[in-house]
Design goal:
Elements lengths: L2 H10 L8 E2 L2 E3 L6 E8 L2 E11 L4 E9 L2 E8 L5 E2 L1 E7 L4 E3 L6 E2 L4 E5 L3 E6 L2 E6 L7 E8 L2 E3 L2 E3 L3 E11 L2 E10 L5 E5 L4 E3 L8 E3 L1
Parallel strand pairs: 5-15
Antiparallel strand pairs: 1-18, 2-17, 2-21, 3-14, 4-11, 4-17, 5-6, 6-8, 7-10, 8-9, 11-12, 12-13, 15-16, 17-18, 18-19, 19-20
């Protein structure tokens, strides 16, 4: 085998140049959100690291989307005393809603991991791990995609949240279909990079995401 061929093989084993600059998180002011490109369905599960930094009156959506009665939504309800009273999760029709009310499972500026699974929602942070059982969804596939930092309700965006997302993994029938990490693209624009598709996902709202390097 020639020396030249050896060099080519060694070069081929080197990692590809990274086209982006990783950052710690993306932060929405309530007017920025990401279209995941994944339709809401009963097969969706998610693993998300996030942190709420400010309350928005009502519900604060971490991930959500759908049409009519068929949706995949995970939101956090809030109180005025600084604690989050729990979550609200819908998969399918509105009758398949799971409320985690009455459990102070997170606080502002506390990084939290949520795993939205088939039969449970699991919160983990410095306060420990809390698991909630959820009902099995009926089969459905919605016509519209899910958003991060808000939820898409058919043709309008609602329940916009002021939070930071450190990463988001979305699974469809246990297959990883989105592996989002927060980055700056080659033009220093903050966005999410999907390690599955190798594509950038940009702000679909207004303004610009904040971030921490």
């Amino acid at each position: 085998m020639s020396v030249f061929r050896n060099i080519l093989m060694e070069m081929g084993n080197q990692p590809s140049p990274t086209p982006y600059t990783p950052v710690k998180y993306l932060q929405s002011s309530g007017t920025q959100w990401i279209n995941t490109g994944i339709k809401a369905s009963s097969n969706i599960t998610a693993d998300i690291d996030f942190e709420m930094y400010q309350y928005v009156t009502g519900w604060n959506c971490l991930i959500g989307g759908g049409n009519g009665p068929y949706s995949y939504i995970f939101t956090n309800g809030v109180t005025n005393n600084g604690s989050i009273t729990g979550g609200w999760m819908t998969r399918g029709p509105s009758t398949n809603t799971n409320n985690f009310t009455g459990n102070n499972i997170m606080e502002l500026n506390v990084r939290t991991n949520i795993q939205c699974l088939k039969n449970s929602c699991v919160y983990t942070n410095t306060n420990g791990t809390t698991t909630f059982s959820v009902s099995e969804p009926e089969d459905f596939v919605a016509d519209y995609n899910m958003y991060l930092f808000a939820q898409l309700k058919s043709t309008w965006v609602d329940d916009k949240a002021k939070l930071r997302i450190y990463y988001c993994k979305i699974y469809d029938n246990s297959v990883l279909v989105r592996d989002f990490i927060p980055v700056l693209d080659e033009n220093d624009v903050p966005c999410m990079y999907d390690k599955v598709s190798g594509q950038y996902f940009y702000n679909a709202g207004t303004g610009t995401f904040s971030y921490e390097e």
